Amino acid sequence: PEYRARVRPLCVIPVSRQRGKSDKIDRNVDAFRECYEVLERGGVIGIFPEGISEMARRVRKIKTGAARIVLEAERRNKYELGVKLIPIGLHFFSRSRFRSKVLVNVGRPIDLQSYFSLNEQDNIEAVSRLTDKIQDSLENLTVHVQHSELDRFVKDIESIYRDELMTQT
User: Fold this and answer.
1) What pLDDT is attached to residue 7?
2) What is the pLDDT of residues 7-27, one digit of tens each?
């Protein structure tokens, strides 16, 4: 209805983060439906599953939305849709600078077939396992410093060698 009538600049489908407000969450039902329809038409969706952007050199615990969208789109189409889930890692050379250089690492598509039968039996478990797989894939494709004290160490090394690193990029 009114939700679908809005113009989507750059084809962006807004998703609301959970903050205890049911009206925003209700809007996500429509956003997810819109994602299913894009995939059913053979379209492409880019999802940033962390939900927020952060300065730390680590992949935050990702949200389940990407896994939920993919599995539901396939379920709605008897698992014959053929969605390709391709993890992409981004590394910004200067996160604080607008238009910084960025390294894009494209991973191998995640095999979704192994999640389909589990999804029929236990959707929550299938979503959890696929989310874990996406998390692992993103951590392998990005700079992922697991411990905050090591992140501080990396920042210190960067500040010492900043001039040298800037001449090499």
Assistant:
1) 46
2) 455 567 767 666 555 555 666
Dig out the tokens for 147 from the structure: 């411990």
Q: At what angle do helices 65-76 and 123-141 cross, to 10 degrees?
A: 130
**Vertex 73: Cα angle to 18 and 86 (nearest 5):** 85
More confident of the two residues 54 and 15: 15
As a whole number of angstroms, the distance between CA 153 and CA 32 comes to 40
Residue 163's SS3 state is helix
**DSSP assignment of 28-95:** HHHHHHHHHHHHHTT------TTSS--SSSSPPPPPSHHHHHHHHHHHHTTT-S---B--EEEEES-T
pLDDT given for residue 131 in this prediction: 96
Per-residue confidence (pLDDT) for residue 5, from 0 to 100: 42
Q: What's the number of CA atoms in the CB half-sphere (13 Å) around residue 122?
A: 7
Structure tokens at 59: 């992949």
